[in-house]
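Entry 0007
Protein: RNA polymerase sigma factor
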Amino acid sequence: MARIAKGDDEAFRLLIERHKLAVFGTAFKMLQDRFLAEEITQKVFLRVYWAAKRYRPTAKFRTWLFTILRRLVLNEFRRRPSAEVLILTGDDPGAGSSQTTARSPAEMLLDKERIDLVERAIASLPPKQRLAVLLKGYEDLSYEEIGRVLGLSLSATRALLFRARESLRKSLPFLLGER
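Output (structure tokens):
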């Protein structure tokens, strides 16, 4: 950020390359609109660029970055309150797995259906709970970092994630083997 504040465009390019997938992925999971997520991602990095001279590293950079993202996404929800939000990550359940066993088409279809159910359950959460779950589950932020992003105390963040997990547990009993 110090280099960007001095006008180093290469430093800004590197910063974007390092963080754009996480910002875009989170925006897309929240908004379920590729073009809107791209627009929000661009706005995030424009705000980073404009704030470079004022930036003070009082917290982790990613925390500050996701705080900017949170504000822009919540502004979009306020602007379009009737927008239905679904999460579609396109994750392949077998990708990155160290297992080399072949899976049948039926198993792959069942995995996809389970992923779709989980994504819909997450999408049904209120925006703050949804963002907290995404930041914890996909971005692996700590409770403290999530609290800073959402503007909540540590205990409020823990409570928010607890309520989100309870809602998910009730809507996804198959994850726990319940019926």
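Curator remark: Helices lie at 2-5, 9-31, 34-51, 61-79, 105-123, 127-137, 143-150, 154-171. Confidence is low (pLDDT under 50) at residues 81-101.
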